[in-house]
Design brief:
Blueprint lengths: L3 H32 L3 H69 L2 H19 L9 H12 L58
């Protein structure tokens, strides 16, 4: 794949060379036109000079357009990088806030929980201003804020996986449950087995 910056620089160099060559030709034709004595030679050289001059002007216009396109592309690239960073920050903030709000409301009563949630928002506001807001793994980020808030039960290691995609819930697998014991065999009460197999039921005829 051709590097876009390298291609732009190469095209710019070619256009600059063409402009220089065209300008040199235009100067030569201009001198030749002034030196020509025959009217037809002068007219022919003058026409050639105008064509060379127009070619130089077109080359310069292409060179200016190439520069404008490069500047616009650079601005678009920076805007795309900024928007991507903003999306990562927003996803990280939402994930950290959701995890810690659940933890706060689980551990604390209403009034205390509301204060802690407010403090959480202030911490996130402060950290979001730094360039390294998403630098740490997600679980390390959560553990750091838990410590700052004085929460006693931070998420267990692995509850929030560092490899989990930002903005996607990461759940621990549910603990294995012991298999329920099979129902007690009812063979003893069946007509064909058990000690009661030969006993007559009251409703059966004795004849």
């Amino acid at each position: 794949m051709v590097d876009r910056t390298e291609m732009t620089e190469r095209h710019g160099a070619i256009l600059a060379e063409l402009a220089a060559l065209g300008l040199g030709l235009a100067r030569h034709l201009n001198e030749s036109a002034f030196a020509a004595e025959a009217p037809e030679d002068k007219a022919s050289l003058t026409l050639a000079f105008h064509r060379a001059s127009r070619s130089v002007r077109q080359t310069l216009a292409l060179e200016a357009r190439l520069q404008r396109d490069a500047q616009r592309q650079a601005l678009e690239d920076r805007a795309e990088v900024r928007q991507d960073a903003e999306r990562r920050v927003a996803k990280r903030r939402a994930r950290v806030r959701a995890t810690l709000e659940r933890l706060i409301w689980t551990e604390h009563e209403d009034a205390e929980a509301e204060v802690l949630v407010d403090n959480l928002e202030m911490l996130l506001d402060e950290e979001e201003l730094s360039d390294g807001f998403t630098a740490d793994p997600l679980d390390a980020h959560i553990a750091r804020i838990c410590e700052a808030l004085g929460l006693k039960n931070p998420p267990l290691q692995g509850e929030v996986s560092p490899q989990a995609t930002e903005g996607v819930e990461a759940h621990s697998p549910p603990p294995n449950r012991a298999a329920s014991p099979p129902p007690q065999s009812r063979r003893d009460s069946s007509p064909s087995g058990g000690a009661s197999g030969g006993a007559d039921h009251p409703w059966r005829s004795s004849s």
